[in-house]
Amino acid sequence: MRSTNFTKRTSLACGAALAVWMALVAEWAASGPLADALRWLGFTTALCASLVAAVVARRTARPVARSIAYTVVYMVVWQWLMFGTNALGWDELRVTLANCGLGVLFMVGLGWVVWGVERSSRHFQSRRALPIAWHERHAPHPFVAEAEGRRFSASGAPPKRIWNALDPDAWYYGRRGKKLAQSTAALGSYSLAFLLLTMLLSQLRGCQEIYEMPAGGGVQQTIAQTVQVQKRIKKKFVINPFSSIIFNPPPIDDVKLQLTEATSHRYTVGYGQGTGAGFSGGTGRGKVRFIRLEYAGGDWDQDFGVGADVNMLIEYGVRTSHAVAERTESRTVSELGNFAVGKSPPLVYLTGQRNITLSKSEAKTLREYLLEKQGMIFGDNGGSYHFHNQFVAMMRQVLPDVDPVRVPLDDVIHRIPFAIPFLPYVAPHGGKDALGWKVDGRWVCYYHPGDIGDAWTDDHSGVKPEIWEACYQLGTNVIFYAHAEYNKWLEARQKK
Fold first, then answer.
1. How far apart are CA 73 and CA 76, in angstroms?
2. Which tens digit of pLDDT belongs to each residue from 157-212?
3. CA pair distance 214, 199, nearest whole angstrom
4. Could you give the C-alpha distances from 13 to 17, 18, 22, in angstroms and in order?
5. Is 50 helix (H, G, I), strand (E, B) or coil?
6. Which of 138, 179, 287, 436 could join 407 via S-S bond, C-beta 3.0 to 4.6 A?
């Protein structure tokens, strides 16, 4: 009696914990107001309750109930690990757990489908066997079959069509290989349902990708730069003109000038109220990341992974003191849709020299990224006027109502944090002026016509130091502009 009461109380407690867990999952998915500490407490409590339920079920419940308990425990543990890795910022581990856990969940669900189909098949076959057995032992009694809703012949084949998919004698399974046809149909239906459910669950925060900026603050001002001139005057020689020693002295006033450009950080590079260089909408684990955009039809990976992107990211971190990622990344256009609103990358980089092909769905995803998720494209012509036309055509497909305009040198994107006196380029493949697409006073796309990425490579493609230095400064400006504008948008959303 005590064991029964204990089992009932345990089941009620675990049921309540499961209800709390489902509520927390919904709150977390909707980016609710709860603090991470409360979520940690709730998810951990639900995890412990599910483990207790599994132990109790193993001792007292039937095999089916134990299997149900183990399935629930797996889902709770998997979700707890997803939440934990997401909260700790372990994105790579989170993605691995998401993919592996999803595969295991598919196999677990498939096992339940196989069990359910087999159980239902046996049920229908046993019901059908009863009147047939009676029919074989006694005189034909059609009323017995009619009482069951069917007429059965001596062979057991129902003359009427059966539509129930759980019945192996359903007419659409054919006459031969009915079990195989039923199993194939069950596998196909389950796989389709699992795919649709996965697409729905992918909207949860744990399954979405997130981008977080580094925490901090600062102001949008131009970094003050000064040029210091140092004179180095060599030693003067006093020579006796009547000496018999032949000596070729250096010029008396041999002066060597050293020009040293010193950058004076009179303010913290960033935006908003916060401690240290960064952004008020960032987090302690946030970092500035450099994400290259993949697209079909061309060479999106031109110079990818050979130092250009990495060098620019490192230079950005040095020049702004912002925390940056350890390596650069790439994402497809469709994968931009996986980022949540308010947790999307402020900037993606797109380059190449051949074709750019976007489907209608990709154009829609890119439009939503620019307008609804406050993103920005940093375009770079990697080597041809053809790419220039391709890029402009792509933007016309994404933003048909917005025309490109020349970005003047006195624009904020050319002045903060570094004042760019001229547009630096390696080669003017698409002209000598930067183009921009502006929406509601914000640049949603900045297009560089002269292969700025080549200046970021290890050898700087042979350009002069003042060119590649200006290219690093311009890259820093564009990255900073995108993050600062994104931070302003985050603050406006919080006020609403």
1. 5
2. 555 788 878 778 887 787 787 878 888 888 888 889 888 887 766 555 445 688 99
3. 30
4. 6, 9, 14
5. helix
6. 436
**What's the one-letter identity of residue 432?**
K
- Which backbone phi and psi does 346 adopt, to 5 degrees? -65, -20
Buried b (16+ CB within 10 A) or exposed e, 454-488: bbbbeebbebeeebbbbbbbbbbbbbbbbbbbbbb
Q: Calculate the CA dihedral of residues 347, 353, 359, 363 and round it to 10 degrees.
A: 30
Residue 485: strand pairing partners: none
Angle at 173 between CA 183 and CA 146, to 5 degrees: 115
Residues 6 or more apart in contact with residue 25 via CB below 8 angstroms: 79, 204
Looking at the chain, which residues constitute the CATH 3.40.50.12140 domain(s)? 291-495
Tokens of 453: 């990425």
Bridge partners of residue 269, in order along the sequence: 219
Cα gap 373→388, rounded to integer Å: 26
Specify whether the CB–CB gap between 475 and 313 falls below 8 A. Answer: no
Q: Is the dihedral of CA 184, 190, 196, 198 positive or negative?
A: negative
- Provide the pLDDT for residue 369: 97
Whether 254 shows a pLDDT value over 50: the answer reads no
How many percent of the chain have pLDDT more than 70? 76
Tokens at 279, concatenated: 């952004």
Task: Give me 186's structure tokens.
Answer: 């069950």
C-alpha span between 6 and 360 (Å, rounded): 59
Q: Considering the entire predicted model, what is its pTM?
A: 0.62
| Token pair belonging to 492 | 């406006």
Q: How far is 136 from 17, CA to CA, in rounded Å?
A: 55
Which amino acid type is present at position 15? G
Angle among Cα 306, 310, 312 to the nearest 5 degrees reads 120
pLDDT tens digits for range 444-460: 999 999 999 999 999 99
Task: Assess contact for 319 and 357: CB atoms under 8 A.
Answer: no
- Asked whether residue 123 carries a pLDDT value surpassing 50, the answer given is yes
Mean pLDDT (whole number) for 309-338: 93
What is the SS3 assignment for 459?
A: coil
CATH 3.10.20.70 fits 291-495, yes or no: no
Q: Which helix (H) or strand (E) holds 443?
A: strand 442-448
Lowest mean pLDDT among 31-40, 56-65, 342-351, 427-436: 31-40
Band of pLDDT at residue 442, cut at 50, 70 and 90: very high
